[in-house]
Amino acid sequence: MSKILMTGTSGFIGNALANEIAASSDHQAICLSRSPTDVPAAATIQADFSDPDQLRKLDPHEGIEVLVHLAAVVGGCAEEDGLRVNVAGTHHLLRYLIERGCTKFVLASSIAAVGMQSVKFRPLQLPMPDEHPCFDRDGYGFSKYMMEEVTRYLSRQNESLDFINLRLASIAPDDRQLTPAEPGDVPPWAMGRLSVMFLSDTVRCLIAAIEAPHKPGVRILNAVGAQACTAVPVPELLRSWFGDDAGAIDFSHYEQPGRERDPVYDITRIREELGFVPQMPILGD
What we know:
CATH topology: Rossmann fold
Strand content: 15-25%
Radius of gyration: 19 Å
Number of strands: 9
Number of domains: 1
Number of helices: 7
Shape: globular
């Protein structure tokens, strides 16, 4: 039985995952959140992961083997908050656990790490690879990118550690009726509008990362739904959104039959690394 620490368990994704993990006979769940968390069969700790002093509340829980780090300040945050919590705070948490023998770390990064919050964002290529560079102008995406860099830094110090950074999509409740994107002016968070994953698939994805065989090093993996949430083929939509800038983008992937609405983030590698394939259709049956 593996002992798993999960942060952000009072949140939408974290609470769903915590209940799933706590119900499993294969894992022992520890939940850390700033707000009270009610998860049957789990140890719950109310604390701020970004405060080194409050991390001492974890001291009685020896032998943590896996971290699933979902807590963060989210999109639209102030630059200072993003750097303080998502970067420095995550470093505090990882350092604390590494010094106590934890060897596997699953972190919720974001598709926003590429910088798509801004209407000025243009992808270098499509579908965007897992390690598409960060062009962020707004703070949140940069903080998630820098969180990934923290894991690279710590991996260089200890090459036996396993870090999985999941660049998560926009996550929706399973019963939400999605509104496909339409041609027009490019909106803020444009690629996030197109890149949705339902909650049950997200929980499956996180469990796949938890249970994947130990692999030393750092992995950055896109985790989005199997279709772009668009009313028209991806090239038509992005030519409308990006205007003349679309001329620099190779759309040949989407011009193949059956690929017209493929995701704008490449999800090939997450299937290869974790065996994860999203099941819930984005555009309906």
